[in-house]
Design the sequence.
């Protein structure tokens, strides 16, 4: 299960290109693509396909658009956005059960 750290804190990330992205964790690839490198991950492909520039859209339009929804939808598939899985997947071992103080 993926628990979006930025989403849970109601945070977003705007990079120096003026792009609205969900968090700093995916920014490295966004910047690489801004420098002309091809997309390497699902986030990169979505970011290439769907406009997330605040120069041409409002925050709400981008939040309601296909980039953010594509990322969120991926969390319930076998192939979630790679960085989301790596950074924000909650594993069984992350759940601490305090049986010691019962
Ligand atoms: S890596 Fe994915 S799940 Fe984690 S904060 Fe960023 S968008 Fe949310």
Sequence:
């Amino acid at each position: 299960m993926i628990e979006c750290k930025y989403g849970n804190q109601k945070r977003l990330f705007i990079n120096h290109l003026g792009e609205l992205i969900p968090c700093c964790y995916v920014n490295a690839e966004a910047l690489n693509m801004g420098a002309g490198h091809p997309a390497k991950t699902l986030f990169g492909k979505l970011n290439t396909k769907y406009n997330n520039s605040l120069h041409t859209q409002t925050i709400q339009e981008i939040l309601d658009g296909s980039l953010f929804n594509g990322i969120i939808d991926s969390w319930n598939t076998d192939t979630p956005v790679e960085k989301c899985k790596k950074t924000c997947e909650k594993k069984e071992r992350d759940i601490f059960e305090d049986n010691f103080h019962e």
